[in-house]
Amino acid sequence: MVISLSFFTVLILILLPGIIFRRFYYYGEFSKQFNAGHNLVTLLSLSLVPGIINLFVVYYFYDYIFSQIDLDGIIDMFKDINDSQYRLKESNGGISLKNFIDGKVLPFTGFLYLSSFIFGTLFGRMVRIVRLDAFFKILRFKNYWFYLFNGQVTSFRKLKHHKEKNKKYLFTKADILIDTETSPLLYSGYVADYELQENDCKALSKVMLENAERYSMIGGKKTPVKIPGNFFVVDCTTLKNINLTYVYQEKTGTLKSKIPNYLDTAFALSYFLCIPFFIFRAERIEWDLYNSYFSLHWFHRIIAYLLFVQVLSLFNVFRRKGDEFQYVSISLVLAKIIIAAALGGVLYLLVK
Description:
8 strands
């Protein structure tokens, strides 16, 4: 079967990068939204718009920063691939793999796919970090239970009056009423985790409770009875209704503010955004040190990137421990300096 040139070009340059973008845009709690209830045609259609935007952004960025690109020439090479007489080995007028590299087809395509991964990874997280989904409904993820169980609904415009000012959210207490064949059962506890239905990112499957209690009839009254164990998993297949209560505490100090999270995120983003510059040579950057980097062996380049990350991390004064932030200790700073010095020493010995 011969695939038409137009579809092949759209598939390589738009649809596949769009799929990569969407796959990494929906992460963690929202990963099921990537393909929940979508067939192949729908999945390709949803990938079209991000694929087109990604292609234009990457094309102009790569053309300006890294190397000038002849997009018409790239499409012509894809046309050669679509030719039934095409042979990868250079013979009978065919083109070789070297032509694809020299013609910047493979470097540009590789940069396109890498950018799709980076953009999808960063934008999905930036929407949550900056809370754009709280202000713009079009950016809101379909996993509404995430916002409910984590107290995020109080950031929505219509529900802001429920938010406790100058207080930090701690956890959510849930009262869950489950319908049974005999009579409804009521459970209470602090929400530790939850699961969604396999093919429906909007439907709740299970809720994991800490310090769980069930309500039983004792002396003609409904009385809470402690459920032994660390966690109690409630099957929500027959969920009737659920009541949520948010628990807060007073904010105190910089470590309890949003500054450590923003700073830690900024450093993480810088590590990601610098990756293309360590893989593809940017012709706009004329530093001797940067240009000499590309004469190194690929293994040496990995060490150089790790050295860069280690040195850059020295400027981050916060460290995450679980869900909390702490100031970086002197011992940790010294450890980072030692690791950076060791990486620098190894790199020097290898390239000497």
